[in-house]
Amino acid sequence: MAANKRGWRYTTFFTALAVAAATVVGAPRPALAGHDGYCDVAAEDGNLCLYRDSDYTGGMLDFTRTDHNYTSSADVFWIDFSESGININDQVSSIVNAETRCVWYLYRDIEFGGGGFWLPIGTNISNLALVSGNYNDAISSHYKWTGTKECTNGSTGQ
Ligand SMILES: [Ca+2]
Ligand SMILES: [Ca+2]
Protein backbone atom coordinates (compact mmCIF):
# COMPACT_ATOMS: atom_id res chain seq x y z
CA MET A 1 0.00 0.00 0.00
CA ALA A 2 2.86 2.37 0.86
CA ALA A 3 4.43 1.87 -2.58
CA ASN A 4 1.17 2.61 -4.32
CA LYS A 5 0.69 5.72 -2.29
CA ARG A 6 4.21 6.92 -3.06
CA GLY A 7 3.71 6.17 -6.75
CA TRP A 8 0.55 8.23 -6.82
CA ARG A 9 2.35 11.11 -5.18
CA TYR A 10 5.12 11.03 -7.80
CA THR A 11 2.59 10.97 -10.63
CA THR A 12 0.77 13.94 -9.18
CA PHE A 13 4.03 15.80 -8.65
CA PHE A 14 5.21 15.28 -12.23
CA THR A 15 1.81 16.11 -13.65
CA ALA A 16 1.93 19.39 -11.75
CA LEU A 17 5.39 20.09 -13.17
CA ALA A 18 4.23 19.37 -16.72
CA VAL A 19 1.29 21.73 -16.35
CA ALA A 20 3.54 24.45 -14.98
CA ALA A 21 5.98 24.01 -17.88
CA ALA A 22 3.18 24.07 -20.45
CA THR A 23 1.84 27.27 -18.94
CA VAL A 24 5.20 29.00 -19.31
CA VAL A 25 5.87 27.79 -22.86
CA GLY A 26 2.33 28.42 -24.04
CA ALA A 27 1.96 31.88 -22.50
CA PRO A 28 0.88 34.41 -25.11
CA ARG A 29 3.40 37.10 -25.93
CA PRO A 30 1.74 40.50 -26.19
CA ALA A 31 2.60 42.31 -29.44
CA LEU A 32 4.00 45.55 -28.11
CA ALA A 33 5.20 47.70 -30.99
CA GLY A 34 7.37 44.96 -32.44
CA HIS A 35 8.94 43.90 -29.13
CA ASP A 36 8.32 40.28 -28.21
CA GLY A 37 10.94 39.52 -25.57
CA TYR A 38 12.84 37.14 -27.87
CA CYS A 39 16.29 37.88 -29.32
CA ASP A 40 15.58 36.37 -32.75
CA VAL A 41 18.05 35.83 -35.60
CA ALA A 42 16.38 36.11 -39.03
CA ALA A 43 17.43 37.59 -42.38
CA GLU A 44 14.11 39.36 -42.81
CA ASP A 45 13.67 40.54 -39.24
CA GLY A 46 16.91 40.39 -37.24
CA ASN A 47 16.90 41.87 -33.77
CA LEU A 48 19.03 44.32 -31.88
CA CYS A 49 18.87 43.09 -28.29
CA LEU A 50 19.67 45.49 -25.47
CA TYR A 51 20.39 44.11 -21.99
CA ARG A 52 20.24 46.00 -18.72
CA ASP A 53 23.34 44.36 -17.22
CA SER A 54 26.67 43.16 -18.59
CA ASP A 55 27.08 39.64 -20.04
CA TYR A 56 23.54 39.71 -21.53
CA THR A 57 21.65 39.56 -18.24
CA GLY A 58 19.29 41.68 -16.15
CA GLY A 59 16.39 41.95 -18.63
CA MET A 60 16.34 42.50 -22.40
CA LEU A 61 14.48 44.50 -25.03
CA ASP A 62 14.56 43.47 -28.71
CA PHE A 63 14.23 45.87 -31.65
CA THR A 64 13.74 45.22 -35.36
CA ARG A 65 14.10 48.82 -36.57
CA THR A 66 15.53 52.26 -35.96
CA ASP A 67 14.37 54.12 -32.82
CA HIS A 68 14.87 57.90 -32.45
CA ASN A 69 14.46 57.81 -28.67
CA TYR A 70 13.51 55.44 -25.89
CA THR A 71 10.55 57.39 -24.53
CA SER A 72 7.75 55.02 -25.64
CA SER A 73 5.86 53.06 -22.99
CA ALA A 74 7.03 49.93 -24.86
CA ASP A 75 10.71 50.83 -24.35
CA VAL A 76 11.12 48.75 -21.21
CA PHE A 77 13.17 45.66 -20.41
CA TRP A 78 11.54 42.23 -20.58
CA ILE A 79 12.33 39.52 -18.05
CA ASP A 80 11.16 35.98 -18.83
CA PHE A 81 8.85 37.44 -21.50
CA SER A 82 7.00 39.83 -19.22
CA GLU A 83 7.74 43.51 -19.00
CA SER A 84 9.79 44.78 -16.09
CA GLY A 85 8.50 48.33 -16.51
CA ILE A 86 12.05 49.67 -16.31
CA ASN A 87 12.76 52.11 -19.14
CA ILE A 88 15.83 51.22 -21.19
CA ASN A 89 17.12 54.79 -21.64
CA ASP A 90 20.62 55.20 -20.13
CA GLN A 91 20.37 51.66 -18.71
CA VAL A 92 21.85 49.34 -21.36
CA SER A 93 25.09 47.51 -20.47
CA SER A 94 25.42 44.75 -23.10
CA ILE A 95 24.20 44.17 -26.66
CA VAL A 96 23.52 41.27 -29.03
CA ASN A 97 23.29 41.85 -32.79
CA ALA A 98 20.97 39.18 -34.24
CA GLU A 99 20.66 40.91 -37.63
CA THR A 100 22.12 39.15 -40.68
CA ARG A 101 21.82 41.84 -43.39
CA CYS A 102 22.16 45.28 -41.81
CA VAL A 103 24.36 46.95 -39.21
CA TRP A 104 23.27 48.92 -36.15
CA TYR A 105 24.57 52.29 -34.95
CA LEU A 106 24.06 53.16 -31.29
CA TYR A 107 24.12 56.69 -29.86
CA ARG A 108 24.60 58.37 -26.50
CA ASP A 109 21.77 60.88 -27.05
CA ILE A 110 18.31 60.87 -28.65
CA GLU A 111 17.95 61.52 -32.40
CA PHE A 112 21.32 59.85 -33.09
CA GLY A 113 23.29 62.52 -31.22
CA GLY A 114 26.07 62.73 -28.67
CA GLY A 115 28.47 60.40 -30.46
CA GLY A 116 28.11 56.71 -31.09
CA PHE A 117 29.56 53.51 -32.45
CA TRP A 118 28.52 50.83 -34.91
CA LEU A 119 27.88 47.15 -34.48
CA PRO A 120 28.90 44.99 -37.47
CA ILE A 121 26.78 41.95 -38.38
CA GLY A 122 27.30 39.13 -35.93
CA THR A 123 28.95 41.32 -33.28
CA ASN A 124 27.99 41.25 -29.61
CA ILE A 125 29.31 43.46 -26.81
CA SER A 126 29.28 41.94 -23.32
CA ASN A 127 30.20 45.17 -21.52
CA LEU A 128 29.59 48.63 -22.97
CA ALA A 129 32.03 50.15 -20.46
CA LEU A 130 34.77 48.65 -22.64
CA VAL A 131 33.69 50.52 -25.78
CA SER A 132 35.91 53.54 -26.45
CA GLY A 133 34.36 56.49 -24.61
CA ASN A 134 32.45 54.18 -22.19
CA TYR A 135 28.86 53.67 -23.31
CA ASN A 136 27.68 51.85 -20.19
CA ASP A 137 24.25 53.15 -19.10
CA ALA A 138 24.36 55.77 -21.85
CA ILE A 139 22.59 54.58 -25.03
CA SER A 140 19.53 56.69 -25.96
CA SER A 141 18.84 55.91 -29.66
CA HIS A 142 19.86 53.58 -32.47
CA TYR A 143 19.82 53.43 -36.25
CA LYS A 144 19.58 50.42 -38.59
CA TRP A 145 21.69 50.87 -41.74
CA THR A 146 21.98 48.89 -44.99
CA GLY A 147 25.27 50.55 -45.92
CA THR A 148 23.58 53.15 -48.13
CA LYS A 149 20.24 53.94 -46.39
CA GLU A 150 18.06 53.14 -43.40
CA CYS A 151 17.40 49.42 -43.13
CA THR A 152 13.66 48.70 -42.84
CA ASN A 153 13.60 44.92 -43.23
CA GLY A 154 12.27 44.44 -39.71
CA SER A 155 8.68 44.54 -38.57
CA THR A 156 7.47 47.89 -37.28
CA GLY A 157 8.66 48.83 -33.83
CA GLN A 158 9.38 51.97 -31.85
CA1 LIG B 1 22.96 48.89 -17.05
CA1 LIG C 1 21.89 58.77 -23.13
UniProtKB/TrEMBL annotation:
Q: Which UniProt keywords apply?
A: Signal
Pfam hit, one: Inhibitor_I36
Source organism superkingdom? Bacteria
- What is the residue range of the signal peptide feature? 1-33
Please identify the protein, giving its name as recorded. Peptidase inhibitor family I36 protein
> What species is given as this protein's source?
Microbispora catharanthi
